[in-house]
Amino acid sequence: MGFLKFFKEEFQVIRERDPAIHSPLEVLLYPSFRVMLKYRRAHKLYLKKHYFLARWISQRAARKTGIEIHPGATIGKGLFIDHGSGVIIGETAVIGDNVTLYQGVTLGGTGKETGKRHPTLCDNVMVSAGAKILGSFTIGENSKIGAGSVVLREVPPNCTVVGVPGRIVKRNDVRVTWNTMDQVHLPDPVFDDIETLKKENTELTNRVLELERELRFIKKEK
Description:
Layout: H1 3-17, H2 31-47, H3 51-65, E1 68-69, E2 74-75, E3 80-81, E4 88-89, E5 94-95, E6 100-101, E7 106-108, E8 120-121, E9 126-127, E10 132-134, E11 138-139, E12 144-145, E13 150-151, E14 159-162, E15 167-171, H4 189-221
Parallel strand pairs: 1-4, 2-5, 3-6, 4-7, 5-8, 6-9, 7-10, 8-11, 9-12, 10-13, 12-14
Antiparallel strand pairs: 14-15
Helix pairs in contact: 1-2, 2-3
């Protein structure tokens, strides 16, 4: 892909997917836009085995943007990194098309694997702020990873994952794309279970108090 064509595509991705954009020139200031231009250049050098120069470009981009993308990572079209500070993408990570990453996301390894060490994100995946995906498994297309989640195993397509460690809390055939990037209103079964236990505890406490009142009344009658 020529530089001008890629420039236009990245420009359009940010304009369409960030509601905070009020003028086209703002796109040029975005860390995501700047780091992706540098990544594409570094990746080409990496594929040609110019490893030092590739890393030099990527490390300079990381210092300027707060986004660290290893030049060995494979990234498809339409990656959108919102805000971006603290995002880390490892060397063997593979990212499909139209993926969205928020600030503080890590696509890392566990330190226990060799070769393919980092995750694969299929098309249309959304990873919310602060989430960590660690290991050489796949996140299926159209899946969502909730904010602050730590994902340590494979996620099928069309799923929603929350928690530490990450748990699948929703799985269906509904297509999830960047048009539904809601990071907040995700189901949490642990919270629901806690609320149920609290309700049951309140009911039991009230029942015990009622029985104690009845017992005192019986003793008085005697």
